[in-house]
Amino acid sequence: MNDELVTARTRTKELADRFLQQNNPTGWFEVLYSQAKGDTSQIPWADLRVNPNLSEWLENNQIQAEGKKALVVGCGLGDDAEALSKQGFAVTGFDISASAIAWCKQRFPDSEVNYLVSDALKLEQSWQQSFDFILESYTLQSLPSSTRKQVIETIVEYLAPGGTLLIICRGRNKSEDQGKYPPYPLTKEELAFIETLGLTKVALEDYIDSQTPPVRRFRIKYLKE
Ligand SMILES: C[S@@+](CC[C@H](N)C(=O)[O-])C[C@H]1O[C@@H](n2cnc3c(N)ncnc32)[C@H](O)[C@@H]1O
Question: Domain total for the chain?
Fold first, then answer.
């Protein structure tokens, strides 16, 4: 990890901590993006490329994208949404941060992705049962456990019958501490909540990724009957 990234991570943790102490678990994202003023080195997760955990999955899974609608939850700076658009999906990418969404539009001026500001803790009624493919990568892990069930319920609500949900997140055992600051690795036990909402888990990969330093990830595919 280079010094710049270490500094950005430390600053982000301090910022998140301030908001978490005020019982405002999502307020810090907009502050982080807006204060960065277009400097991606200030955003610890912004590496300006498709998440390798997604691109690898897309290479290994034949997904039907043509004529289908995809949703990217907490789309950040848009690279994963763009990748799904290239696959042939009609993509909506949403993020709670207006500055992140403006940044996506600036980065990809000719994009076919519909970038929108929306809060996964508030249901968009018009999106209910609308999307054939939903990608949730790294947003659940950036939120405290008190909010995750609600985000999961919203995401599942947006999935159309027959649709696929792909979750990519940090993973830990239940016996391990999640740590004080985000990103919080998730447990399989808490992710089991998704199945209680009627989705079927069809694949769970539990692996160490190729990041430096390496990180334990869960990559889980669910289907909605
Ligand atoms: C750790 S970043 C990951 C961004 C992107 N998915 C990626 O992998 O690069 C988490 C993202 O989720 C967004 N986010 C956090 N809470 C959210 C919420 N309640 N609704 C929508 N987006 C949210 C943040 O603004 C941020 O862009």
Answer: 1
**Where is 205: in which H helix or E strand?**
strand 199-208
CATH number of the domain enclosing 61: 3.40.50.150
Q: Whose CA is nearest to atom 17 of ligand 1?
A: 96
Nearest CA to ligand 1 atom 11: 74
Structural domain range at position 146: 50-224
28 pocket-lining for ligand 1 (C-beta < 6 Å): no
Our answer on whether the CB atom of 82 is closer than 6 Å to any ligand 1 atom is no
Residue linked to tokens 């209680």 = 196
- CB of 100 within 6 A of ligand 1: the answer is yes
pLDDT of residue 113: 98
pLDDT, tens digit, for every residue of 165-201? 999 999 999 999 999 999 999 999 999 999 999 999 9
**DSSP secondary structure letter of residue 154:** H
pLDDT in tens, 24-78: 999 999 999 999 999 999 999 999 999 999 999 999 998 999 999 999 999 999 9
Residue 218, H or E segment: strand 216-224
